[in-house]
Amino acid sequence: MTEPTAKQIKDEKLYQQWGLTDSEYELISTKILKRLPNYTETGLYSVMWSEHCSYKNSKKVLRKMPNKSERVIAGPGEDAGILDIGDNQAVVFKAESHNHPSAVEPYQGAATGVGGIIRDIFSMGAQPIALLNSLKFGPLKDGQTKHLVNEVVAGIGGYGNCIGLPTVGGEIAFEDCYEHNPLVNAMCVGLLNNTDFKHGTASGDKNLIVYVGAKTGRDGIHGATFASDEFTDKKNKQRSAVQVGNPFIEKLLMDACVEIIEKHPEWILGIQDMGAAGLVSSTAEMASKAGSGLILNLDKVPQRETEMNAYEMMLSESQERMVLCVKPEFVDNVLEFFKHFELDAVVIGQVTTDKQYKIYHQYQLVTDIPVDSLTEDVPEYDREEIQPQRMIEDKDYQFVPDIDSLEETWNEMLQRPNIASKKHFYQTYDSQVKANTLVRPGSDSGVVRIRGTKKAIAMTNDSNSKYVYLNPFVGGQIAVMEAARNIVASGGEPIGVTDCLNYGNPENPEAFWELDKSVEGIASACEKINTPVISGNVSLYNEYNDVAIYPSPMVGMVGLISDIDNVTTNDFKESEDLIYLVGQTQDDFNGSELQMAQFGKLKGNLRNLDLDQEKLHQDLIRQAISQKLIKSCHDLSEGGLAVALSESTFENELGFEIKTGLSSAQMFSETQSRFLVTIAPENKSAFEKLMTTDIEYLGKVIATPEFKVTTANESVEMSGSVAAKNWKEAITCLMK
Amino acid sequence: MKLVKVYVTLKDSVLDAQGEAIKSAIHSMGYNKVENVGMGKYFELRFADDYSDFEKDVDAICDDLLANPNIETYRYEIMEAE
Amino acid sequence: MKFAVINFPGSNCDMDLYYAVRDGIEQQVELVDYRAQSLEGFDGVLIPGGFSYGDYLRSGAIAVHAPIVKEIIRFANEGKIVLGICNGFQILTELGLLPGALIQNGQSRFICETVALRVVNNETAFTNGYSKNEIINIPIAHGEGRYYCDDKTLSELEANNQIVFKYLENVNGSVEHIAGVTNKQKNVLGMMPHPERAIEKILGSDDGLKLFQSIINYQVKVNN
Question: C-side interface with B, Cβ within 8 Å?
């Protein structure tokens, strides 16, 4: 393939195929360069100015997120955010979406999503300690979706298990809108023992740029560069753009990077993962942040394939690669250090002072552009936004459920894929490697202790996109608060948030409104409970045939448990314990699983969330846990009280006998700000005195797996074993 | 009986992580002349003699199941089986 | 006692084993690189779980060619204690120090779960702290943990009391529910479950502790 000339790129508007608009191209050629960019340069701008790298469509909205607290050491703009947890330790975490790659090649797409997020953590000098994931698919009806689910789950497990990090939490949901556009969001949490390490910059004249890790191939280079006949003749398509992960190499890379930063911080000025847009993104960001320039010599780059051009090398998304900035006097030590780990490490360039980004390939200068123009000069867009028509039309609609048989509805709800046990999937993830996991998947949060201390970290992923679809602002608030309740129910104090913002086309005013309003919702909730948003990513254009997914912000939250004695799980512990519902229940059926079950679609508005009351309940539960009053605690979410009660019995094969003022329908209401707790009988008065809010005494835990329920309408006795079977086996049955 | 031997391999441009690891092991055993190792999958499909359209089936089976066209390629041999 | 935890590229339970020895039974322990040439000075060798060399080709197959392996063989042949857990078990079978092989789980998926094991033989260096037929809860985490051997090997294993642990419920389709076996001399044990993850109650179980204590008991006896 011969490269088109700069003039051809302009005349034939080839830049459009790479995603640059006419006005963006105009800006580059007339204002920034004052000449026509050549092929390689056009490619660099097109990828660096993409939404994925530049956030040009979402920046304005993202600024609404709070990112400060007394714990924040580093916030957005780094590979991952850092929060102080005392004793010179910090947690580092981030979530990232890998939606499109997973739709194309589910196993590798999901696997490399996990690999990428792990690199974001250890490039901060932190030791990764746990993984989580949030997955959304179409309904488990046809073979294709099941295949997709199996492959994505296998990819996540294949990578995480091999590298040896426990997957301690996550969620999987199924809705029609994700059938052709699955969401794969992965989160990694790390522990940093050296909070002074400054990473991610390439500074200081003549300092060296070192490439470490796997060789570069043509992985992940999208569309335009491929000869057009590539995907026509099946037999001959010898090239592939799919990134393939190698967790074995990443394990070596992770161990090496963590060790070099811990033992020899003086050798290294900066370190960054080569993620999206590989070499260009990592090096340009490092130089731009430091106010430096760079010279790169691509002939030095370790290559897996032959005859790669500069554009391909710069944009390759080959996995398991890092870039380091190293002081010349230590470069031999650094190269020797990585050699010991059997990793390729080579010097590919050096830092300059002229703020230019210069690339040589085969002794030719193929790029010479201001480094800041790649990262700083990206136009920012102010998109039009309109409230979705459905919200206006349906604002007064209220879904009224119809419960013929409480027992039947109860069992039906337990079998709904969004509610039923996801053990079929998560038991394929190693949740215990490293021998620090205190709470494994299946409870409200995953909990990992910090060895050698009394501390533990609670973590969760949450997103109920059904609520966000009905009311983006309130839905955004709920996403944060549900995550926070999960942390609180586990005995933790919520300290920070990462997010993946998965939405449709931002050029669609309704989709942009959804983004904007839900971010405002997330921001207001985060401010309320002092959980800054310290990292995250944005995935827009999630559509298929012009139909967008539900607006799907995923909130990843981390909590600090200062004393592992406070770790609490959701399962009932023993009979005779008293069961309480904390928080008032109302008729919140719009957006509920019950609405989906009975009405088949979403409709109506959500009630405003009372943030003060929400925070009060979280604070009270935390106090009760730290005073050792609570034996089990479960956040109420999809399927409401009925589901929470059921889930609490399964682990220890217990039952309950309760009497409530709620109607049978209200057993499934999804009113927010509620917890289900059990306490020992002797703590009754202390607990009731502490709870200065609406609480309802429901009844007792019983030793046999029976559900004895009296609602305002009726009395029912159900088999807990049947309920357990329904809940446990539903997904396995559907996956057959 | 017709025997179809199907070989599925990674496309040249796709990282062959297993092949690389095996190559290192071979080198560590002293066989330094081995320059490349590729690892793939092997299948045997048998068809009854009275069925002549099997090649079309093999292609479809490979495209839709045995190989992942995003990253793999395949070839096959046809022979008489017992 | 002084233990060596062998660290192959891709081992990932090495530190878990290290802590189990250091904190669980409070003995000396060192990580030993796969390129090391000697196990001089060690009383026991522990081969950890993980994915040595990515588990590429076959689990454990490539590790067999690492430099330290010659020394592990010598160590085992001298009758000293060798324990392989999970990937370590796979390596020991690939090496031929233990009979049989570990193949893909019956359900073709990775499984991570805490399972009940029966202590079939409590008269070994690794199990003398348990009672016979004691039921213990130990986590498993593997995709290729299904123990396979031919009938002849199985009858030898049974005749020599080499089967040490069996799954109560056959989680992965192993021959005769086998979860762990020793060599004939009973100084080499391989097992798929992870006792090093069952050292503390807060992690869900401390049933694995007795396995490590058994090794100490045994060594004390030998030394006397």
Answer: 53-54, 56-57, 62, 65-66
**A20 — pLDDT class (breaks 50, 70, 90):** very high
CA A145 to chain centre: 21
Q: Catalytic: A98?
A: yes
- Is A652 near chain C, with CB under 8 Å? no
pLDDT tens sequence across A160-215: 999 999 999 999 999 999 999 999 999 999 999 877 766 677 778 789 999 999 99
Shortest distance between the Cα of A322 and any Cα of chain B, in A, equals 17
Nearest by CB to C112, which of A162, A430, A434?
A430
Q: What is the mean pLDDT of residues A311-328?
A: 92
Name A654's Cβ contacts closer than 8 Å, sequence gap at least 6. A572, A574, A575, A701, A702, A703, A704, A705, A720
By the CB < 8 Å criterion, does A439 face chain C?
no
Chains in touch with B (3+ beta-carbon pairs under 8 Å) read: A, C
Cβ within 8 Å, pair B11-A239: yes
**pLDDT tens per residue, range A415-451:** 999 999 999 999 999 999 999 999 999 999 999 999 9
Q: What is the DSSP letter of A277?
A: T
Mean pLDDT throughout A401-405? 95
Q: What per-residue confidence (pLDDT) applies to A222?
A: 61
What is the token pair recorded at A130?
């746990």
End-to-end alpha carbon distance in chain C = 14
Q: Please give the pLDDT value at position C85.
A: 98
* A699 in reach of chain C (CB within 8 A): no
State the pLDDT at residue A228.
Answer: 31
Domains in chain C, ordered, with CATH?
2-223 (3.40.50.880)
Q: Is A243 on the interface with C (CB under 8 A)?
A: no
Q: What is the DSSP string of A379-429?
A: ----------HHHHHTTT-------S-HHHHHHHHHHSTTTS--HHHHTTS
C39 and C2 Cβ atoms separated by less than 8 Å:
no
From A459's Cα to the closest Cα of chain C, the distance in A is 17
Active site residue A199: no
Does A278 score more than 50 pLDDT?
Answer: yes
Q: Which of C57, C90, C112 to mutate to test the interface with A (most CBs of A within 10 A)?
A: C112
> Which fold does the domain B2-80 belong to in CATH?
Mth169; Chain: A , (3.30.1280)
Query: Which ipTM did the prediction report?
Result: 0.96
Domains of chain A: 1-63 (no CATH), 205-352 (3.90.650.10), 568-735 (3.90.650.10)
What is the number of other CB atoms lying within 10 angstroms of the CB of residue C70? Answer: 12
Segments making up each domain of chain B, as ranges: 2-80
